[in-house]
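COURSE: Structural Biology Practicum
ASSIGNMENT: Worksheet 4, Part C
STUDENT ID: 0417
INSTRUCTIONS: Below are two proteins. For each, the amino acid sequence is given first, followed by its structure token string. Answer the questions at the end about the second protein only.

PROTEIN I
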Amino acid sequence: MQENAYEYPEPVWQLFRQTPRAGRFAPDSGTVLVGEARTPAADSVLRLELLVEDGAVADARFQAHGCPVSIAVGAWLADHSVGRGRAELDMIRSRQLIDTLEIPEDRAHCAFLGEDALRHALEQWP
């Protein structure tokens, strides 16, 4: 197992190492909402894809380019979105990501990145 040499918080490290739901949906997957956000200063990009069926997220995927915290935020959002409707997802804010993933304040921009990607995806909700 790879050592956590930079001492990332355990929730971040686990999601970074496992990256559940990483990837993209095939073009013919159905109604896929796509949200993308970037932070040019930190050179990070997060793409979140939500497959919506019957008023809820049936499945989700993410792609991230950035530090382990950015990747963990994408993984958490994708995993946490499954089974939820728009109203529940609308309530997710960067503070929840910071608290849940134990993100240090100097990496808070990663949580904002996640919130922005989620907001952009939800703007397309049918």
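PROTEIN II
(use this one for the questions)
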Amino acid sequence: MAGDIATESKQEKAAVSVKLSGDKLAAFVVVASDPPPGGPLDPQVIHATLRQAGVVHGIDEEAVREAARCEKLDQDIQVADGTPAQPGEDARIEFKVKLESDGAPKVGKDGRIDYKNIDFLQNASESTVLAVKHPRTEGTPGRDVLGKEVSALRGKDKSLPMGSNTYVSRDKLQLLAKTDGSIVYAGKRINIQPISTISGSISVKTGNINAIGSLQVRRDIEAGYTVQVGGDLEVNGNVLDSTVECGGNMMIKGGFIGRGNGRITAQGNVTVRYVENQSINAQGDITIGGEALNAHLFSGNAIYFKGGKGRVVGGEINARNLISAREMGNEAGTTTIARVGYDAKLMGEYLHTKKEIERLENDLQRVKEGLYVLVRLQMDGKLPAAKKPVLEKLKQFQASVPDQLSELQAKIKELEKKIAENAKAKIAVEGRIYPGVRLYFGLVYHQLDRMEQNRIYDIEYGRVTSSPYDKSKVKVA
């Protein structure tokens, strides 16, 4: 409290003081017990004291009468309440277009996947309104108990998410498409990527493709070609042994097949009907509509096997958070590796550090063997002069190795700790999972020795555990 002002009333010589809150949005009256008021005061005494203190706004008459009754001596009684300023509303962006597809086809009741009715590329025409800005408001000023205006805070401003091939209207309230193209929402900006269409296949007739925007391929991508797409990619047919790089999402309505020379890399999601012998690396989700046979899949989030088969046999599938399949492995016991809690960068660094430790330990063993021979020669007085520098270098190396190994071991422990952090990762199998399937949760390993069915696997207290399959739990945590 600040701004104490005291006055002695003529009635009963009561001492009445006024206190103001720091922001001057509240005023309090205190009737002192010394000297004693000798009975109720005239409310006008309170009013006079308030006027003297400059309090003119928000006076509560009932509170004034309460103070005048002198039932609460030496206590703060709030008798005035200012009007707080109302802050303005923040600017708000309203999107007028669908920014992206869910990246996955719909599965019918019969288990079949509908690849035809998919709005994979989200398109916009020139001058399409993409987003509308609702401006911030100024707010409503308030008034303190002294009658002075209290300024209001303006709402926070927000810019329209203008990306490539878009522009802002003259009134700064609309974002529009500058050209026809597909909508690519990246980095919190809306970009319009021109759509290129190849009516046939990518083959000897087209050669390698480098498309700045999005691309539609009406037929196949034949073996041996390199396709680079800045936006989204849609392929109506198959992709054979080719290298395909995509800056957005990718939809392959056929299969990704070949002799193992194919590689797909995408910054977004990848959806494909089936995969055999090939490699897919996606920052987002990977959705397989049928089988993955001897494939190598790497997802920054989740891998889903959908449709009637939804099966993975052989190969290696890696996801950071979730793998969901109808079936894993087969009756022949084909080795099938499924990893979750997988971070490619961390795992690569971990394996590299492991190899460095192994290399140092092997080198140290060879140095010890070489030192043994040279020291024996030195003790017998038979060490050639040319070998003396070699002996010194080996001694120096032997002395330095313990420190190097100690640093690498500490690094291994730190990496293991980071790899183990994603403890919420799951592997869910709706149907059968056969012996030969190996499950990894970070660095924790579990191999099935018998066929199991309808299970969700996760890790608890450093051990792989399982529970009955529950569809509601098959989601990224």
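ANSWER KEY EXCERPT:
Q1: Residues 2-81 form one domain.
Q2: DSSP finds four helices and 39 strands in the chain.
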